């Protein structure tokens, strides 16, 4: 297989649309369609089943996917091993994080890093999963969930608290929750159930009825905006919510601690620029969490 053809095939197989694949590859949709057609012609087999909404892998495409993924892993492993010879902290580092962690912790770390190592540049991305450490060559991921993969290096950066918050607009509309009834009869803003399933069983010690969830958001910044508008009560990181005068703690004695994890591929741990970034992140998380506790 030609590696360039494989790149286009993998992008479309993962994104399932020409638009998504073109965006991930930074090319136009017509180029993706043309390269896939040429690849199928070279293989004399159809790789995708076209539907009105998506490109789904054919049976043959599923077989090619396994081989293509192995080829991708081999290419990336060679690149990582070549990079391990670096001794001077220089080059680009791709970091995946959440919007809130990036705003409060990662960007200050990047500022510190740039002052010490001006030859290091950073690409900071949100909405990227752990799998992208391999699939898209993301170097470091920072998440509030620990990955299951035994192939990755995992280190705890900090433990942060989350708590329930509402706004005065909400209290004016539905009143304040009382200790004896908890969150019963109150409306909630939450993460999607498939994103954080544990919150549907236990939200800061309270049971949740699915009918109470009036809005689901996949980022805390969206949740913060919705809560401020009085849409419902929601769970937010205390380091984010306590700085917002429009947010009012609900049952402030109830807290949900969350471990924050740094994840990277083992082949990258000795690369100078990666070590420099990790050191800056560790220092910033340690200092910022200590300040939040004071």
From TrEMBL:
This is LysR family transcriptional regulator. It comes from Pantoea eucalypti. Keywords: DNA-binding, Transcription, Transcription regulation. Residues 1-58 form the HTH lysR-type domain. Belongs to the LysR transcriptional regulatory family.
């Amino acid at each position: 297989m030609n590696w360039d053809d494989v790149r286009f095939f993998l992008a479309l197989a993962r994104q399932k649309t020409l638009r998504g694949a073109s965006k991930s590859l930074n090319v136009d949709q017509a180029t993706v369609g043309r390269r896939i057609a040429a690849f199928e012609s070279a293989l004399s087999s159809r790789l995708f089943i076209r539907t009105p909404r998506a490109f789904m892998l054919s049976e043959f495409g599923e077989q090619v996917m396994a081989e293509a993924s192995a080829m991708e892993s081999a290419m990336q492993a060679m690149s990582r091993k070549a990079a391990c010879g670096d001794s001077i902290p220089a080059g680009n580092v791709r970091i995946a994080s959440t919007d809130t962690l990036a705003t409060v912790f990662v960007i200050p770390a990047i500022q510190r890093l740039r002052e010490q190592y001006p030859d290091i540049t950073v690409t900071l991305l949100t909405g990227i999963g752990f799998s992208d450490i391999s699939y898209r060559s993301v170097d470091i991921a920072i998440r509030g969930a620990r990955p299951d993969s035994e192939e990755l290096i995992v280190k705890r950066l900090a433990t942060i608290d989350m708590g329930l918050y509402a706004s005065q607009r909400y209290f004016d509309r539905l009143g304040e929750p009382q200790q004896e009834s908890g969150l019963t009869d109150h409306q909630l803003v939450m993460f999607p159930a498939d994103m954080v399933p544990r919150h549907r069983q236990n939200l800061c010690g309270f049971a949740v009825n699915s009918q109470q969830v009036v809005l689901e958001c996949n980022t805390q910044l969206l949740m913060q905006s919705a809560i401020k508008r009085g849409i419902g009560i929601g769970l937010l990181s205390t380091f984010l919510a306590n700085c917002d005068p429009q947010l009012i703690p609900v049952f402030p004695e109830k807290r949900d601690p969350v471990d924050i994890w740094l994840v990277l591929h083992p082949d990258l741990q000795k690369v100078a620029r990666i070590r420099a970034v990790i050191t800056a992140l560790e220092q910033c998380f340690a200092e910022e969490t200590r300040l939040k506790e004071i």
